Amino acid sequence: MRRFHIALAVADLQDSIADYSRRLGVEPTAVVPRKYALFRTDQLNFSINQMPERAGQLRHLGFEDDAASGFSSTHDVNGIEWELFSPADQDAKIPEVYGKEVIRAG
């Protein structure tokens, strides 16, 4: 499966989790309190980072792809970062980047 990935900066993680849970119709699959949340739908991999100074800004785009090997990142002609990763690689990277305080749903 291949999902489009969008990563945004948000002002308040808890308020954003409540808002995006309603908008996407799913609860986050992973949460790092006060830092990060990840939502997965059938078509979308959506992550948010609490970064009040950058709230509302795009952090990067990409694809979650079951066929991907490892975690890669490139920039397009407009300077936007694009990531490519498998679900397992992203799941492993979350505690590596944000620490062990990951709460997983399901």
Concise synopsis of the structure shown:
23% of the residues lie in helices and 42% in strands. It has helices spanning 13-24, 87-98, and strands spanning 2-10, 30-32, 36-40, 44-50, 58-65, 71-75, 81-85, 103-104.
What's the SSE blueprint?
Blueprint: E1 2-10, H1 13-24, E2 30-32, E3 36-40, E4 44-50, E5 58-65, E6 71-75, E7 81-85, H2 87-98, E8 103-104
Parallel strand pairs: 1-4, 5-7
Antiparallel strand pairs: 1-5, 2-3, 2-8, 3-4, 6-7
Q: What this model shows, in words?
A:
With 106 residues, the chain is of the alpha+beta class. The chain has a single domain (2-100), classed as Roll (2,3-Dihydroxybiphenyl 1,2-Dioxygenase, domain 1), CATH 3.10.180. 23% of the residues lie in helices and 42% in strands. The protein is built from two helices and eight strands, in the order βαββββββαβ. An eight-stranded mixed sheet has the order 6-7-5-1-4-3-2-8, with helices on both faces. A hairpin with a 3-residue loop joins β3 and β4. It is globular and about 30 Å long. The two termini are 19 Å apart.
Major beta sheet, strand line-up: 6-7-5-1-4-3-2-8
| Major β-sheet annotation | 8 strands, mixed
Number of strands: 8
Residues in helices, as a percent range = 10-25%
| Approximate strand percentage | 35-45%
By CATH, the topology is: 2,3-Dihydroxybiphenyl 1,2-Dioxygenase, domain 1
H/E series: EHEEEEEEHE
Structural class from helices and strands?
alpha+beta
Low-confidence stretches: none
The CATH architecture: Roll
Round the Cα radius of gyration to an integer and report it.
13 Å
What is the overall number of helices?
Answer: 2
Q: Please, what is the oligomeric state?
A: single chain
Can you tell me the CATH superfamily? 2,3-Dihydroxybiphenyl 1,2-Dioxygenase, domain 1
Mind telling me the CATH class? Alpha Beta
Query: Could you give the distance between the termini?
Result: 19 Å
How many structural domains are formed by the residues?
1
Nearest-integer average pLDDT: 95
**3D shape:** globular
Protein name: Glyoxalase/Bleomycin resistance protein/Dioxygenase superfamily protein
Organism: Enhydrobacter aerosaccus
